[in-house]
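Key result, reporting period 2: structure in, sequence out.
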């Protein structure tokens, strides 16, 4: 298996963490008789040699030895080796030379996969069909192999893999008009109906939805729901029902590992089947919501658990305007199955305001199960429990008295202050308690960041001017020290700025910070408190050209707020508007427009950033809002955004949802003329 391995100069090759001299040991570990050693070696291969899908010169050097492992029947877990080979050969773009070399290496040896398609090990047979489609460049032969294996195969999981490979075959060859692709579509259509079992039929429907949607049945959703429930009944009869709490649901510390294990789908095959169908349906939101309704009302808790996670996927990407999936997720909170309950809580936490339809269920959980209000992790400080965090993030006023109880108790989660802004004015009764806790933060603590910053953010959001003395105490009393202290100082300064003229007693403190690393934040607060442009303009001119990118952007944003008083900064802003950083360009263009009314310079910058860098849209929309009628030339972008069914960012999880809701709010205010100057 390893002939020639010692002749490779591994020390001169590289992987993600440097020299690849450890790779021969990893390859030998893949062939070990000890399961733990094999798993450790495989983890290291993915962690270093194929780190996050990357291909290194050491990855290419491994390919011949991985093939040698794959064909030796005495090697355990050979399917993992085949899967690793497929991943190595199916990564990177066309301009990535190493990735192209990997694909070429896999194609040069693709004949090795042919006999493995009929291997005695079902795991190997399951891993091979995708390799055949990807790397054996003889479509007629590949299709014949897949067709024959479907005829003789008896293992359901292998049949599912063969079905998925037919879909991959169609996607690879149909755009070229290859006749073999039409035959593969016909096979998929045949597999989607009787006499095949419900799981296989679901798999075929998912593949058809992705490669030949015109052939889907008109009653796709009812058919899919019916097949899903048939499959669940078959699993139960075969002795694979949900069997109550698992090993990670019982007593013991609530570690990250325990939570991750609980949140993994216990029916991963069912999850994959339905996720494939959802992904293929894409923007057919009405069909996907109907499909989720079927999943979330299934008698089988595993189907409902998968439905919860897939609802999150839909809501992260699409502005559905429908509350039904969230309401149905809320009903899962009463489930006795720990995995389903945890999934529902985790999803509702990341929905922010969209979780409102489930608020009654969240409030009931918070009320009747007080032990869920605070989560005590394995290490570190306690944090808010998921149900209470979700209720507060949804903006539900019923969270306020519960948070008040926590503030009055002996254990107060450090992140409690972070949910206050989502409650708005409903959280005003909490201001005195928040203020008192801020006043008790020890100034000599090694790291006051975790305790102070959430409290400062909360009091700033509430505009609690009575907390000025407590905030000033932090500014004056924190010792010079680590960067975390700078974070507390900036948060304190921003809180004073949020209090406006009520923070006049802190003006000397703010002036004293104008020559520090917190200069821009101090200038921002000073402007908010005094409105004295002359006091802050020299600081901003200095920071605009001589500081790090983040501080330059903050300086430009404040210059925009100064309006015409910022004209001396126009040369620097114009240079910044040509920056390679889209955030710098947008911030500078907005400031130029507000300072000098130069739409002809600013419009092209803002339009291109809106189209090419969706993350900047909130900043652009905010600029349009404060410009009032002068921002009319960009109103078409805002109207198109409000009409779009898709969220502007889909790569940020729950925070992407929150940011998208904020963007829509600002767009609406700008078009209605209610933006704040």
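The corresponding designed sequence is given below.
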């Amino acid at each position: 298996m390893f002939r020639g391995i010692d002749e490779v100069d591994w020390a001169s090759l590289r992987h993600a963490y440097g020299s690849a001299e450890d790779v021969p040991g990893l390859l030998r570990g893949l062939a070990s008789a000890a399961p733990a050693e094999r798993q450790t070696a495989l983890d290291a291969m993915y962690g270093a040699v194929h780190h996050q899908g990357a291909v290194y010169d050491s990855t290419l050097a491994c390919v011949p030895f991985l093939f040698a492992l794959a064909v030796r029947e005495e090697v355990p877990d050979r399917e993992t080796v085949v899967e690793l080979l497929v991943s190595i050969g199916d990564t990177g773009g066309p301009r990535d030379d190493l990735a192209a070399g990997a694909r070429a290496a896999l194609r040069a040896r693709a004949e090795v996969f042919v006999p493995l398609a009929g291997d005695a090990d079902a795991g190997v047979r399951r891993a091979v069909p995708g390799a055949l489609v990807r790397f054996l460049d003889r479509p007629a032969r590949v299709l014949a192999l897949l067709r024959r294996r479907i005829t003789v195969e008896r293992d359901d999981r292998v049949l599912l893999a063969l079905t998925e490979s037919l879909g991959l075959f169609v996607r690879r060859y149909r755009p070229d008009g290859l006749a073999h692709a039409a035959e593969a579509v016909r096979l998929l259509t045949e597999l989607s109906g009787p006499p095949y079992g419900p799981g296989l039929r679901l798999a075929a429907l998912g593949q058809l939805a992705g490669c030949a949607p015109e052939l889907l049945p008109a009653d796709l959703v009812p058919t899919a729901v019916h097949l899903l429930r048939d499959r669940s009944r078959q699993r139960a009869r075969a002795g694979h029902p949900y069997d109550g709490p698992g090993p990670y649901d019982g007593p013991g510390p609530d570690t990250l590992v325990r939570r991750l294990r609980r949140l993994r789908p216990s029916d991963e095959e069912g999850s994959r089947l339905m996720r494939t169908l959802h992904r293929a349906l894409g923007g057919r939101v009405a069909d996907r919501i109907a499909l989720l309704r079927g999943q979330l009302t299934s008698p089988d808790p595993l189907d409902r658990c998968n439905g919860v996670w897939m609802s999150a996927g839909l809501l992260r990407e699409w502005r559905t305007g429908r509350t039904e999936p969230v309401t149905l997720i809320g009903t899962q909170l009463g489930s006795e199955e720990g995995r389903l309950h945890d999934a529902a809580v985790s999803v509702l936490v990341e929905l922010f305001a969209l979780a409102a339809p489930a608020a009654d269920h969240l409030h009931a959980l918070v009320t009747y199960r007080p032990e869920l209000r605070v989560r005590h992790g394995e290490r570190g400080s306690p944090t808010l429990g998921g149900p209470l965090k979700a209720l507060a993030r949804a903006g539900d006023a019923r969270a306020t008295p519960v948070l008040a109880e926590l503030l009055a108790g002996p254990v107060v989660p450090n992140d409690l202050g972070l949910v206050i802004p989502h409650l708005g004015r409903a959280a005003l009764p909490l201001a005195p308690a928040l203020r008192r806790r801020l006043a008790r933060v020890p100034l000599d603590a090694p790291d006051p960041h975790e305790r102070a910053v959430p409290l400062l953010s909360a009091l700033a959001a509430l505009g609690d001017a009575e907390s000025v003395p407590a905030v000033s105490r932090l500014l004056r009393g924190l010792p010079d020290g680590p960067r975390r202290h700078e974070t507390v100082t900036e948060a304190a300064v921003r809180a004073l700025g949020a209090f406006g003229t009520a923070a006049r007693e802190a003006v000397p403190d703010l002036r004293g910070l104008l020559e520090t690393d917190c200069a821009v934040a101090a200038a921002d607060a000073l402007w908010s408190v005094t409105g004295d442009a002359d006091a802050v303009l020299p600081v901003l001119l200095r920071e605009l050209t001589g500081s790090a990118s983040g501080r330059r952007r903050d300086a430009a944003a404040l210059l925009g707020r100064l309006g015409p008083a910022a004209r001396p900064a126009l040369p620097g802003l114009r240079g910044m508007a040509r920056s390679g950083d889209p955030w710098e360009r947008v911030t500078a263009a907005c400031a130029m427009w507000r300072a000098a009314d130069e739409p002809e310079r600013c419009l092209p910058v803002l339009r291109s950033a809106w189209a090419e860098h969706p993350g900047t849209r909130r900043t652009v929309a905010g600029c349009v809002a404060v410009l009032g009628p002068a921002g009319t030339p960009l109103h078409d972008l805002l109207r198109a955004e409000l009409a779009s069914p898709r969220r502007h960012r889909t790569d940020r999880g729950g925070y992407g949802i929150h940011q998208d809701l904020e963007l829509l709010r600002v767009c609406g205010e700008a078009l209605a003329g209610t933006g704040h100057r």
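The first helix runs from residue 23 to 30. Residues 217-237+260-350 form one domain. This case is discussed further under Risks and Mitigation.
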